[in-house]
Amino acid sequence: MSTQSSSATSSAPAVRSKPGRAAVAGLLLAGIVVASIANALIAFAARAAGASSEFQPLQPGAFITFTVLGLLVGAAGWAVIRRRATDPRAVLSWLVPVVLVVSFVPDLLMFVSDYTPHADTAGIIGLLVMHVAVAAVAVATYLRALPLHTTARS
Predict the structure, then answer these.
(1) Any residues with CB less than 8 A from the CB of 106 and at least 6 apart, and which?
(2) pLDDT tens track of the chain, all 154 residues?
(3) Strand, helix or coil for residue 110
(4) Which residues make Cβ contacts (< 8 Å) with residue 108, sequence separation at least 6?
(5) Three-class SS of residue 130?
(6) Is 112 helix (H, G, I), strand (E, B) or coil?
(7) What residues have CB less than 8 Å from 130, skipping those under 6 apart?
């Protein structure tokens, strides 16, 4: 039996190792799956709320494709900022919300345009909620797969 106190070992700061490429790929894939499932539930809820079943953006082929693209493009942007920014956490704390709001623009334009067939209020609101869900899952995924350094670089 050891007489050494466990508090001596717990005072050292925890060092989180950087995930390897396979781990990053696995985490991104998991994020895509989780976001796609969330979007499927949102699409189901939107249709239950009256969205047209003919509204193409609420079909799995459409939202899964855009979920995959969004998470991968977001990961690339996150990686660039993480690598190049002096304080990536500060940059991402304003950039992520700005990108999310900008992503709403095409959906919001559907309220005033008849370009997208079968677009209705319930469907458009469902799309907006999907953007928020994907952003939330993406940020959680990136924080694990592409962790930010904790102190600003000089």
Answers:
(1) none
(2) 555 544 445 555 554 567 899 999 999 999 999 999 999 999 999 999 999 999 999 999 999 999 999 999 999 999 999 999 999 999 999 999 999 999 999 999 999 988 888 999 999 999 999 999 999 999 999 999 999 976 655 5
(3) coil
(4) 124, 128
(5) helix
(6) coil
(7) 38, 39, 42, 43, 63
